[in-house]
Amino acid sequence: MILKPCLEDVKIIGFYLGKIILGLAITMLIPILIGLCSKEVNPALDFAIAIEASAMIGLLLTKICRTEKDLNWMQGMIVISLAWIVAMVLSAIPLYLSGHFKSFLDACFETMSGFTTTGLSLAQDLDHLSYAHNFWRHLGPFIGGQGIAIIALSFLLKGTSGAFKMYVGEGRDERLLPNVIHTARFIWLISIIYLIIGTFALGITGICIGLKPVNAFFHGACIFMAGFDTAGFAPQSQNILYYHSLIFEIITIVIMIVGSLNFNFHYQLWIGNRKETFKNLESRTFFISIMLTFFIVAIGLNQLGVYPQAIALFRKGFFQLISAQTTTGYMTVYAQQFIAEWGNLALFGLICAMALGGCICSTAGGIKMLRVGVICKALKEDLKRIIIPEKAIVVEKFHHIKEIFLEDKIIRSALTITLAYIVLYGLGALVGMFYGYPFLESLFESTSAAANVGLSCGITSSSMPTALKITYIIQMWAGRLEFMSVFAIIGFLAAAIEGR
């Protein structure tokens, strides 16, 4: 029997949702300060309006729904799934007021793309967007990459067991430290330290290639935030191609790889456990996947003679492959070149890389390397059972931070999420084909949206059908939350209608 949600469930969900909205409102103070420092009065007012709307909604929810009760699993999942939708809408207000988006839906697309660390963009005349609005585009991935709930866990919630439910609801189930709130704060510590280092490296490189110091460090901060959080937004419409610098591209590759690694893996390296690099199933699977998918891409490009020189193959082919595998979406080619020059085999390699994605408990999207590694281990176990005598006992285990026995529930979970991603990729491709786009292009763009990548072959634009924009928004949202929170809200609505 399905139980109908009661008023108390709604109050608890509303209270914690209000907390997260208040946290979002606080983060909007940063672009206001940037706008004031840059003498951009109108952009600062845009964010003041958004803060007022967010604060009113957040305060209203926390007052009306005030409760001392903690979240259960269902409520925690629903809070997170709703938080991403509400954050999309409220964060779109200043972007829409900037005048650089043709509709409010386009601004919502931009913010969902940012928070989910996707990087597909519908901004108009991006090269003339204000500092405040442009910074907000890149701050969104930095917030979403760590997790919207991480804001609440770090600064607004104390000592609540429901914190872990919200943490898991964002597609993470690993704690770096025994306390999930301490884990959230450590994630921010890692991110901010990397932000300082990355911004400095990119800023100095920017000065060396001719950017003014203020612009160089502004671009450095934006590129790092979007790169580390695997989003792919850039301050200029030409993306990374704008900089025409091999050193800049190499630094960006390093940032993308670092951002796509498991936060728990970072923690192990920070405490001196260097052996984890070679022992961890996920890190080994990640680098094997990069080699295999680049092999496919390189063969495809070589067949067509697109980049005959090794340096060109590295700057165009390998860069795009790393961008795809880490689900970042940075580009050193124009979108139309994928269709006009790359050919089907190279595009297939990129699609595979995007679909597989980075590591779990990271800022990356896609199926994730640990699940791929677990599935491969399960296949190996089945092959052993076929080969060895029937009475022999087969025990398979793998190393991920610690030694873990390969149990059926781990395999089932990996296969379920993998299947859900494949279905999501396929459904988006069907919608694209319904509107007349070729199969490979539709699959490329759908995979990019659902795996939170951001690479585009040219379909994503402000002129694409409204239904396709909504489809990609749903794909970005579901892919980033890894389905469990999405299933929870669907179940909650079904219970509200049919429950007893």
Mean pLDDT: 88
- Widest sheet: strand ordering: 1-2
Number of strands: 2
Provide a count of the helices: 21
The secondary-structure element order is HHHHHHHHHHHHHHHHHEEHHHH
State Rg.
Answer: 22 Å
Gross morphology is globular
Poorly predicted sequence stretches spanning 5 or more consecutive residues? none
Instruction: Summarize the main sheet.
Output: 2 strands, antiparallel
SS content category: mainly alpha
Beta strand % = under 5%
Task: Write up this protein.
- With 500 residues, the chain is mainly alpha-helical.
- The protein contains 21 helices and 2 strands.
- It has helices at 7-27, 29-37, 41-64, 73-97, 104-115, 131-146, 148-156, 162-169, 180-208, 213-228, 246-259, 263-270, 276-279, 281-304, 310-325, 335-356, 369-387, 408-434, 439-450, 466-481, 484-498; strands at residues 397-400, 402-405.
- The protein has a two-stranded antiparallel sheet with strand order 1-2.
- Helix 4 packs across helix 21, helix 9 (180-208) crosses helix 10 (213-228) and helix 14 (281-304) crosses helix 15 (310-325).
- The model has no long low-confidence stretch (mean pLDDT 88).
